[in-house]
Amino acid sequence: MIQSVHIFSTRESVSLAEKISQSYGMPLGKMSFFDFSDGEYQPCLEESVRGSRVFIIGSTFPPADNLMEMLLMIDAAKRASADKITAVIPYFGLARQDRKDKPRVPIGAKLVANLLTAAGATRVMTMDLHADQIQGFFEIPVDHLFASAIFINYVKSLKLDNLTIASPDMGGAKRARTYAGYLDADVVICYKERKKANNVDYMTLIGDVRGRNVILVDDMIDTAGTLTKAADILMEAGATSVRAMATHAIFSGAAYDRINDSKLEEVIVTDSIPLKNNLVSKIKVLSCAPLFGEVMNLVHNRESISKKFIM
């Protein structure tokens, strides 16, 4: 007997979920939400999922309602006797809280992992976690996909000469080396120091970029302070052009203005998080929907997904 499949979405991720379900080859499942006057809400799956495989799509960016919707929908599917429940989380929120970096702080990523499992998820599918070790926070399978499968073909289409891949910090050096290997490019690193989040106190360049076309690679762009500062340093060091490439477009605070006013020629991101402002011409959005749709098909058909792990 072939197991039926149902795909649902949290409200803020419907646009991406529709593209993923189209790539998968079936429509989104019917959902309804009852909103109480005090802001509380109750999701309802408007079709039977008994004995089915259920995919619930939703990025868990702030506000916390996005995570709560995911948890409530997983619980609803579990209580409706779904056989397998996969939380498809293109952007995994709270991933920057992956360790205790000072006393008396939480490990938010581990807490989210516990909540997803307690709610009833039997599998998690996500992309470009801020820290790879977050996979180990789960006692259920985690499919950790990489946007490099999307970005590399686009970079090749640009046909840039004298290409150099840059990391905006020491922590991204591995990611930069991996991209450089696939693109046959050099690598440089921007060393930075910061005393508090979203505020770079000092940055310097390690490597030579004179006469090079540089692409900065990162997992996310929040306020864009680091990337725009790195772009300034790279151009001052003699780079011909500077682009930035990051999976998750958080774009908080003055990010859009900083990008628009920066020396960056182009900022390439995915649609894991919906953009709040589509008026900045420098921003190029590549969809991650085909990647998730294909991997969901492979998972459902019990086929290997290792070929999708480019990085």
TrEMBL record:
PROSITE patterns tied to this protein: PRPP_SYNTHASE (PS00114)
Keywords in UniProt for this one?
Answer: ATP-binding, Kinase, Magnesium, Metal-binding, Nucleotide biosynthesis, Nucleotide-binding, Transferase
Which SMART domains does this one have? Pribosyltran_N (SM01400)
Keyword Metal-binding, does the record have it? yes
Q: What GO terms describe the biological role, i.e. biological process, of this protein?
A: 5-phosphoribose 1-diphosphate biosynthetic process; purine nucleotide biosynthetic process; ribonucleoside monophosphate biosynthetic process
- GO CC terms of this entry: cytoplasm; ribose phosphate diphosphokinase complex
Q: Which reaction does it catalyse?
A: D-ribose 5-phosphate + ATP = 5-phospho-alpha-D-ribose 1-diphosphate + AMP + H(+)
What general EC class does the enzyme of this chain belong to? transferase
Pfam families attached to this UniProt entry: Pribosyl_synth (PF14572), Pribosyltran_N (PF13793)
Ribose-phosphate pyrophosphokinase N-terminal domain location is: 6-120
Enzyme Commission identifier(s)? 2.7.6.1
Q: Name the Gene Ontology molecular function terms of this record.
A: ATP binding; kinase activity; magnesium ion binding; ribose phosphate diphosphokinase activity
**Keyword Flavoprotein: yes or no?**
no
What NCBIfam families would the database entry show? PRK01259.1, ribP_PPkin
Entry protein name: ribose-phosphate diphosphokinase
**Species lineage:** Bacteria, Pseudomonadati, Bacteroidota, Flavobacteriia, Flavobacteriales
